[in-house]
Amino acid sequence: MFDFSVSFFFSLLNIVILFIVLRAILFKPVSKLMADRTAKIQSEIENAAKDNEAAKALRLGYEDKIKNADIEAMKITQDARSEAEKQLSTIIQEGKTQAENIVDAARKQIMAERRAAFLAFKAEAAALVIAAAGRLLRREFSDKDAYAQAELALRELGGKD
Questions:
Q1: Could you report how far apart the first and last alpha carbons of the chain are, in Å?
Q2: Is 138 left (phi over 0), alpha (psi -120 to 50) or beta?
Q3: How far, in Å, CA of 118 to CA of 25, rounded?
Q4: pLDDT tens-digit profile of 137-147?
Q5: What 8-state DSSP symbol labels residue 105?
């Protein structure tokens, strides 16, 4: 049935020796290499997970900073708007004050011109009255007499200052 020859035993012995030699020479270094490779990959996975967590933390920090920057920008804009409204109110108030001062100055100038015109009218009226009175009386008055007569005539007409 089975015919085992010597070559079969030598072949089997060669296979066992080859297995032991290969195991000693190749299997242990390859196993060590595979274990090292597995450890390195595991370490890189852990580092990647740590980096991923750190990146998430940074992202959240940056999102908070952006949110705070938006809030601060809105506050700055609101403060600037408020300051601009205050300045606008101040400028309008100063403009109103200046306009009132100009109107008051114009009124004072008008009153002064009105008084000056009235005095000029009074002087001309006095001169006309004196001239008319002089013709009527056929006499010339001195300036002092003329002024006194003009004042008297104006008082009688009710034109007192």
A1: 166
A2: left
A3: 135
A4: 655 666 777 77
A5: H
